[in-house]
Amino acid sequence: MTHATLDLFAGAGGLTTGFHLAGFKSLCAIDINSKALATYKHNYPATKIVHQDIRTVNPAEIRAWLGLQREELTALIGGPPCQGFSRNIPAGYRYLNDPRNQLYKTFLEFVKEFRPLSVVIENVPEILKAYDGAIRDEITQQLELMSYKVASVSLNAAYYGVPQTRARVFFIAHLN
After folding, report:
1. Which among 61, 62, 79, 123 has most CB atoms closer than 10 A?
2. What separation in angstroms does the CA of 8 have from each of 18, 37, 132, 140?
């Protein structure tokens, strides 16, 4: 099998585009936003699309549908919603129990089911310090409990040829 990804919170496919440029094939994209998925499907017509709230998607059913064994998927990628962490949202409207802030747990359920060789989670830099680092620590600890080596790094897109100043955080994890 070629290097393949499953994209959660796929949106229009920005993260997928980077992986495609690196030689990966996108097997499946999951998102709740129909307009974003229409753009995704236009750009990646061979990718299977799941237009559904990810909290209602069964990871085992998706793995079976894709015909994958555990540890066969090269990379599970995605960017869970960032509104509950972003400094662009006034602090009074950000709270830990915001349902969007809990969607990383759904992402981790997919990791547990697929056991991909690599995991990439993208988000805003504030996720590293939000709620006294609780989200950062839980993502890291849960991945480590599943035998992944984990690093988190903040990168600015301007340093990589993107014509905008946009910092993003990436949790990068590798199995074993």
Report:
1. 123
2. 15, 12, 26, 18
